[in-house]
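Subject: mismatched residue count in predicted assembly?

I count 1060 residues in my input, but I want to confirm that the predicted structure covers every chain. Input:
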Amino acid sequence: MTVQCEFQAVVLAAGKGSRMLEFTAGKPKCLLPVGSKPLIWYILNSLQKSGFTEAIMIVLEDQKTEIQSAIENEIGNNTLNIKIEYVSFDDKEDLGTADSLRLKEVQEKIKSDVLVVSCDLITDVNFVDVLNTFRKHNASMTSLLFPSSNIEPVVVPGPRSKHKPEKDLIGIDERTSRLVFSASASDFEEEVSLPMSLLKKHQHIKLYSTLCDSHVYVLKNWVMQYLKSEDNFMSLKGELIPYIVKKQLSKPIKPADTNVSTVNDKDVCDIFSFAKEDQLSLDIREASAYNDHKGDLKPTYNEDPIRCYAYLAPKGCIGIRINTLPAYWSTNGKIQDIWDKVSGDQKLIKHSVNADIKSNQVDDKCVIWDGAKLSEKTSFKNTLIGMNASVNSFSRVFNSIIMNNVVIKEKVAIENSIISDNAVIESGSKIKNCIIGNHYLISQDSEHANEILTKALMHF
Amino acid sequence: MSKSRNTVAKDNATQAIVIADTFEDEFVPISNDVPLCLFRVVNRPLIDYTLEFLSLGGIEETFLFCCNHVAAVKAHIKKSIDEAVGWTLTMKVHIIVSESCWSFGDCLRDLDAKGLLRGDFVLLEPGVISNIQLLPLLKKHSEVFQLDKGAAMTLIYQESSIGHMALCPQDETIIAYNSKNRVLFHKKTQKTKEKRVTFPLEIFIENSSVSVRHNLKDTHIAICSPAVLPLFSDNFDFQTKDDFVKGLLINEDILGSTIYCQILKGSNYGSAISNWRMYQAVSLELNNKWVYPIVPTVKRNRTLPENSALMLQLEKIVIGPNCIIKKGAKVTAGSILGKGVVINEDILITNVLIQSTKSDDILAQPIDKIGEFAYRLRACEDEEDLDLDKLLANKLSRLHIGDDLYEYDGDSDDEFSDSSEELSHTYSPPPDDTKLFFTEVVDSLTRGYEDKLLCDNLILEVNSSRYAYNITLKEVNYNVIKAILTLSQNLPNGTQYFPQLSQLLSYFSPILKNYIKNEAAMADCLQAIEDIAISNTELKDKWVIFLLKYLYEKDFLSEEAILKWFSNVKQDSKLYNQVEPFANWLQEAEEEDSSDDESE
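Triage response: the counts match. Full output below for your records.
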């Protein structure tokens, strides 16, 4: 018999990277190279550091093998030690994050409370702190929030455009850390109205507009059950979480006739029928002198069966979501500076031993992956060279990201650009501030600047 | 004796403005005779506490602004200076008189014209009692002013909790301020009773974090920049401090001024006696030493020999000045000793009121004499049965100004959730709804009669009004009949009156038929007739009898119902005389009927 673990981790890795399709089309977002590791490695490493030995990972069917082999590669290299159970679904089903948690295979595997993380997070927060907030109050939901990391304005490849960050309005009770309000700023036009009852219950709310939702949620097991029965929710952040946060303010409707058994009432999918706490906890709470708030004579937690909490990461913590081009680009630029924090005690391998480096002009900031082939008389500065990419003589690459299997021929100059998988750059080309899509072919002696060159975007 | 108190205040003296009068009518009629600042709070004039607070708080020069009862206030201040009470040593008080001011704002405009204030100053609304150190707050305000030249005012709040005794429901405020303590939103909630509070989105977007608080008590103390007085002068519509705050927040760009706040915690206390409720609350808190070091006067000139036993519950004993309690005497809880009472040896005083002179009260009896200077007082005849607390509670019961008890309705959440749940709440309608319903019915019927609308449609209209106002069937019956009868009173008087009335009634007969369906409805109908008949003296004498006869003949009313109703009509009333012949006639008819039956 195995002991049931307290929390199970679920990694959502089926995202398509829809905010940066220029270079994620045709490639799993979670395998984007960040420094010397694929993106997914960072979150799995964080989970491992927080004590998780297993994780359930939700991936797209057609990306499963690719992701699996990448992770097995890491495990094989002893840089990761976590057991992964894969659940996949077909790309065509077009499921949201909440939908994917509703999948039968996922539901069958979930036995306890759940830590849901997104594959695009790079952080040095120990998830134990988040879990402790959850444990402390026997919460229904706890989310991890970062003080917004102001992405420094960097020159981003591609055409110049202004990135407007999406703002969330997040209200946290200053005294109890209860998460009492969660909405997107774009939901409001000119006014935000809050119910009086909320302000009476939580008399000191701090409303933040600059917090960044990490997409790390700890969910009580009943939330998963509720999700199973309620198929209106598409996404976690957009729908389910705000709904649960709102429902904190409601009280369960008292059944008019207590004699009637509600067991048969399958139609009644009231959230409160899921959110029941067991009598023992209630009795203990009543007997205890503890109260989470003061200033009124209300019972602990105001007798709310649903309680959401926020864990605000301490100042100086790193929390970056790689979901936009600027985030990806700037993170790749500074990954070596933050490596020690986000990787724990792992050693940064800048130049893979399996790479064939003949060039003698590779500066300190370059990262070179397995199987990369750098010919003589090439020059590299602050550049990432992906797996099995090859660069031929007389070419130079500055400040760029070259992904897997890219072929760069002779006399090519690349600067400040992202070159996606399997692209081919013919000899003599000059590329500056460009994003080159998957399998794209740059013809001989062509010059490009501030452009997005990809096949994928044609479809949009 | 030193004359230091008379020296002219230094040029850089910290200044404060105290507005002595409240311009509300909260304290009428008492405030007609006594100015608010001389109200006795735990046996001491209110202004004494205020001035003591200001001098302890570091103020050196105070402008006391008086509009009413100026002589009394002046006399009191003079007396304080003559007696050299604490504050006179460090603070100079100027009394500013203006009898033409009718609001808080007027006072400040007047002060602006006088140009007495030199720098930042402390502004007190009427009736403030506090123990706050003002100098650190002034310093903070000037620090803020260094960064934001528009900073006009710092509002001082005390952390409290809604529902707390000392938080006046009228003062319940929601404020939002940013991380620099700048006030972005200010709203008093009690007046509106709204279920939602609307904030402008921009305050959240422009600031990375905004504190929204609902647990603050206004201390009615504000630290002001010199710009405040001209702002009052420029805006004649600013009558109160709230107007000022509101005006500045709305017209921030135009006026170019900002408001900050400071939240006090811990033992810092600040309150203003703005109504009787606060009077009571502040009295209790003073008594319980919440405002330390500002405390009520302590015992003085009382002679307590060492082994006289006061059953030590001092808070329940009131001992006036110059009392003497002699050896071996015992005074227990609940007793009140007046001025100059002398309690002789070995006397036990339990739960009584004692004064030093003989009472002229008719209740006074010879046995009430306890000593030469001690007479027992009786508050009422059966005093023995009442304990003192209860007695006092009765006397003070007028002080319990009916607050709406703070309700923490977990149910009002539902506007936050689905509308379906919202529908499940039913509120019992306020009594006014019935009136509204009645006027609507009258309107419908008047229009219907004028335009000759179908009665069926009118019934529909009445019924929809009924549901709109949630009126019981009984009230519907009553009000519809009443409405028809009300219409009948608008008919022209004269010979044509009764024919027209019967025309009106026959027009509305489908409605009558619809609503007068059973015995209960008949009773309602008769009640309506009675009410109209009694309330309206100008009705024709025959009106009631005509109406009853009409309704009886058309079978709307049964004779049993009429007789039953008639038996309850007061015999000496005009109505009784009017209806009596008809009732007799009915009685006879019935008897005839029954005798007919017998004969058959």
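The interface with chain B takes residues 148, 167, 169, 171, 174, 185, 188-201, 203-210, 246-247, 249-251, 253, 294-296, 298, 302 of chain A (CB under 8 Å). Marking this ticket as 'not a bug'.
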